[in-house]
Amino acid sequence: MTVIENPEGADTTSGTPAALRIHSPAARPQRPSSAAASGCPFHLKGLAPGQSNAVEGSALQQHGPAPVAELPGGVQARVIVAYGLAQRLAAGSDVSRNADHWPGFRDGSLAVDGVLRQWAGPRNALNADGEEHARLRAPIQTGLTPRRVREMTPVIETIVEEALHDLEVLAAASGIVDLVPTFALRIPQQVITRLMGVPSGLMGEFGRAATGLFDTSAGPADMQRSMDTVLALLGEMVAAGRAQLGDDLVSDLIRASRQANDPLSDEELLAQLMLVVIAATETTVHAIGTLIVHLLTRPAQRALVVSGEVSLDDALDESLRLQPPAASVPRFAVRDFEDAESGQTFQKGEPILIHAAAAGIDPNVHTAPGVYDVRRPTRRKHLAFGHGPHACPGAPLARREVTIAVSRWLKRFPEARLATDTTQLPQPHSFIANGFTKIPVRLG
Ligand code: HEM
Fold it and tell me: What span, in angstroms and rounded, lies between the C-alpha atoms of 169 and 175?
């Protein structure tokens, strides 16, 4: 098993590789079944401390472009680890994000639990395909224009400056601060609050509930309470927006939906708004945290960025390539098909994971793929923002947020250093969420 290493500050995410086991697609079972029954030897159940999705991805690459792995609940999926194949599948019509294509899933005859259960999710743009996808995505897209990103820029700057000020106060009091709640999560959470146009009277409640959605220590009941509160507040905002439109994302969605041939119901609007709240927060938190960790642990790379020799945007791409905030995204084969270029065949209904964390370190695309190198010519060849019809509509806003936040953080705290060994930074135990759940730092 290869542990990815990097002389100039090793890959922060590498460590003891997961106990990975695979079997070849040719020998795969026809239906998802338990590992014990099928003898599937490869597990992608989430990571143990010190392991990383990059390490798993690298191990998977030893077994071809699309090996089979076992997911929680005994479900077996093809994992797409080659960049080219991942791009072709994400862009084409042979696979879908809609779990209706997964036999037995919607009707409940296929027992799956945990993170896979969410693939049934609400009827939102992410879970839809074809015309339904276009109809649900269009209003979101109208709210995330370049004009909106420009207008949000001073708002983001203010949010970041306030967070930096509070960090200084906190650091003076306690020495070590955890950057995740105080900065990496705070920024996207406040940006989404402002983007949505949450009225000032509801901001506190909305902020607390939206933060609660990402509290990894919360139990199911607390999580549900946060979800219900966010939905109720979004419901109030939709009702207010229907009465009087404003200049915010909720109003944009209502406006776009009104102009459509088949307007979205309140329920559909709420599902799309909830999608945006979640998609915009749980990814950006890791993009900010991971970029900071990459730069903190590699002084030479950081110096290139601080001196302006390399842009922070390039450093961000390299960070997204090496450690994308969403390590993998699901798809389902809508028919039997063969990818001519790779010769890989897929069976109708087969679950597929497009593994962005592996595709970003494809050795056929990148030399020394495990090395964080802000000057890498191929740094933009990653799938961190997805590809094809579901490609992230919030990417320009996310880039703006991350670069404002990290550039100002670097300037304010030039002496900052990690307060722990990089291999000790906890990561989500997930083959989807990818980043750090705690980043303790000494700021001065
Ligand atoms: C660094 C931050 C972000 C990353 C890495 C990221 C990543 C992604 C990825 C990989 C997908 C595609 C999922 C798939 O193909 O199954 C996606 C979709 C999406 N993202 Fe982002 N995202 C980020 C920030 C944002 C922001 C700031 C917003 C909104 C303000 C947003 C809104 C969405 C929405 C609505 C979708 C669903 C699009 C569709 O299904 O058509 N994302 N994102």
Answer: 10
Would residue 372 count as lying in a domain? Answer: yes
**Ligand 1 atom having least distance to the Cα of 383:** 10
In contact, 325 and 385? CB cutoff 8 Å: no
| Residue at 195 is within a domain | yes
Alpha-carbon distance of 92 to 354, in angstroms, equals: 13
Answer whether 406 contacts ligand 1 (Cβ < 6 A).
Answer: no
CATH number of the domain where residue 396 is located: 1.10.630.10
Contact 420, 42 (CB under 8 A): no
CA of 31 to the centre of ligand 1 (A): 30
Measured in Å, residue 284 CA sits from the centre of ligand 1 at 9
Identify the helix (H) or strand (E) that includes residue 78. Answer: strand 76-80
Closest CA to 192 of 219, 225, 214: 214
Contacts of 243 (CB under 8 A, 6+ apart): none
- pLDDT for residue 34 is more than 50: no
Q: Is residue 82 in contact with ligand 1, taking CB distance under 6 Å?
A: no
**Residue 8 pLDDT more than 50?**
no
What are phi and psi for residue 80, nearest 5 degrees? -90, 110
Kindly report, residue by residue over 339-352, the tens digit of the pLDDT: 999 999 999 999 99
Q: Identify the weakest region by mean pLDDT among 47-51, 363-367, 432-436.
A: 47-51
pLDDT at 12: 35
pTM of the entire structure? 0.91
Say which residue, 47 or 203, is predicted with more confidence.
203
Q: Does residue 138 belong to any structural domain of this protein? A: yes
What share of the chain has pLDDT > 70, as a percent? 88
Say how many residues make up the chain. Answer: 444
Q: How confident is the model at residue 30 (pLDDT cuts 50, 70, 90)?
A: very low
User: Which residues form the domain of 434?
Assistant: 25-442
Instruction: For residue 413, report the phi and psi dihedrals to the nearest 5 degrees.
Output: -125, 70
How many domains does one find in the chain?
A: 1
Instruction: Please check whether residue 389 lies inside any domain of the structure.
Output: yes
Q: Which of 185, 252, 283, 434 has most ligand 1 atoms within 8 Å of its beta carbon, as the pocket-test mutant?
A: 283
What's the pLDDT band for 51 if we cut at 50, 70, 90?
low
Which atom of ligand 1 is found nearest the CA of 397? 27
Is a pLDDT exceeding 70 seen at residue 147?
A: yes
Confirm if 440 and 176 have CB atoms less than 8 A apart: yes
98 Ramachandran zone, left/alpha/beta (phi>0; psi -120 to 50): beta
